Amino acid sequence: MPEISRFFGIVIKMIFNDSDKHHKPHVHVYYGEYEASVALDGEVLDGKLPTKQYRLVSGWLALHEDELYEAWNKAVRSIPFDKIEPLK
Question: Domain limits of the chain?
Answer without folding.
Answer: 1-50+67-81+83-87
